Amino acid sequence: MTSHAPLQKPITPFPGAPTPTFAPTSQKPTAQTSLRTPSNRKTIYDRNLNRTRTAELSRASFAYLFAEIVSYAQKRVTGIQDLEKRYIIPPSPIVYLLPTLNDTLRTRLSNLGHPLGLRLLPLLLHRTSPSPLSSSSPLPTRPTRIIPLLNFIARPLWTHLFGRPADAIEHSASAASDNEYMITDNEPLVNQYISVPREMSQLNCAAFVAGVVEGVCCGCGMGAGVSAHWVGGEEDGGGGGKGREGEMWPGKTVFLIRFEEGVVEREKGGGG
Amino acid sequence: MSYYFTIINTRDAPLFELEFGTSKAGGDGAARFSPEARAMNPFIVHSSLDIVDELRWGKDAMYLKRIDQFSSSHISTFLTPTSIRFMLLHLPHPPNLAPAFIPSPGSYPPFTPYTSNPLSSSTSSASSSSTFKSSTSGAGSIANNPASPQTEEAIRLFFWDVFEVWIKATMNPFQSMEKVLGSPVFKQRVLGAGRKYL
């Protein structure tokens, strides 16, 4: 028992110290004090979601930022290969798995775009839907079929991101690849100030945009894998027609959207 | 009416929960669920998630209206484009107990958990709505009747406000779409929307 006395002593080294004043302040760490708001007392909840005119970003700063994103992703990457996809936690209950093959630059860019697409989908639908205050206006809708979804991507989403709609939407002609859709952009803004070295020529940095598109598709519950491909036709000497197009639009990029089996089946089943 | 509002993510986990009462017709904005009802509410809401999944590909509206009923609790749903579900359980007070006239915390609206099943809801809701209609005050506010168009409209406006606040919350890059919404400002805003419309 006597050994306890010296142990207790250091706990209260200053008997007359301001412990009583300390106690009451520590007793009420309320939500008011723990919440840190900006100095003008405006939180993100006070901002208007529809203010778009002044929110446009200058192209120079975007180009600089995107170039930095690409070089950041490149620094931590081992190789570039086609069609790899890191496993992304499925936003829909329908589990989709594309196996982890390689942690590549393209994957990294795509993964950066994915959350962006998930957030843009509700935001743009909110902006485009009519004011809910008049009861006669139709109820705001969300895309439940493939075609409205692609239209949403090619028009409002593209216009929001790049200031113009996408150039084409196509459906794969062959029955074997029924689940494949293509969105074409003749001159992607993201690639405008990126020059890819010759040894990496199969890399298309629009993989970032492909990630955004993928985020939108998966957010809707229509799981899809999206990849960006050159159509320029310098490397893949496929069709001659492609080469001609390549002359006119050297940066022409196709976003190949592969929907999962279940999505196409549901589409055929009449949406039930 | 008493309300239990919850936001449920794509993997059926609740991200946000809130109980509140009506602020219309002299209500004080406090929820009056009995202890059993309070315990049952999450289960009732969870059980109607299946109905949301059935409806989500058939309708393309975000507001799915009143989708389910369990005993005297009604469930309305709003489905965001990213498949996050806003579920609102509304429990009307019995006609002779308008919210303003419940003096003691011991007297709750009756909660009859296992008597009526949702399949037979059409008859029961018809009979109950007639009794509610006779008792509603002429204040022009939401009738104490969950099936009425006014209630549907009020819930639609409530959901739209919450949708807007939810977008603002999720635009934050540090807030995952699938994680709990813990912001006190978010809670205040949802409460504010409830006070405004419900």
UniProtKB/TrEMBL annotation, chain A:
Taxonomic superkingdom: Eukaryota
Subcellular location: Endoplasmic reticulum; Golgi apparatus, cis-Golgi network
Keywords for the protein's UniProt record, in alphabetical order: Endoplasmic reticulum, ER-Golgi transport, Golgi apparatus, Transport
SUPFAM superfamilies: Ligand-binding domain in the NO signalling and Golgi transport (SSF111126)
GO CC annotation: endoplasmic reticulum; TRAPPI protein complex; TRAPPII protein complex; TRAPPIII protein complex
Span list, region Disordered: 1-41
GO annotation (BP), single: endoplasmic reticulum to Golgi vesicle-mediated transport
Residues forming coiled coils: none
Cleaved signal peptide residues: none
Chief location category: endoplasmic reticulum
InterPro entries, sorted: NO_sig/Golgi_transp_ligand-bd, TRAPP-I_su5, TRAPP_component
CDD domains: TRAPPC5_Trs31
Chain intervals with Polar residues compositional bias: 26-41
Entry function: Plays a key role in the late stages of endoplasmic reticulum to Golgi traffic.
Quaternary state and interactors: Part of the multisubunit TRAPP (transport protein particle) complex.
Family: Belongs to the TRAPP small subunits family. BET3 subfamily.
Name of this protein: Trafficking protein particle complex subunit
Organism the protein comes from: Heterodermia speciosa
High-level lineage: Eukaryota, Fungi, Dikarya, Ascomycota, Pezizomycotina
Gene (UniProt): TRS31
TrEMBL record, chain B:
GO CC list: cytoplasm
Renumbered residue ranges of the record's region Disordered: 125-147
Low complexity composition-biased segments: 125-141
InterPro entries (UniProt xref): Longin-like_dom_sf, Sedlin
Gene3D superfamilies from the UniProt entry: 3.30.450.70
Pfam families, alphabetized: Sedlin_N
GO biological process, one term: endoplasmic reticulum to Golgi vesicle-mediated transport
Name this polypeptide is given: TRAPP subunit
Organism: Heterodermia speciosa
Gene: TRS20
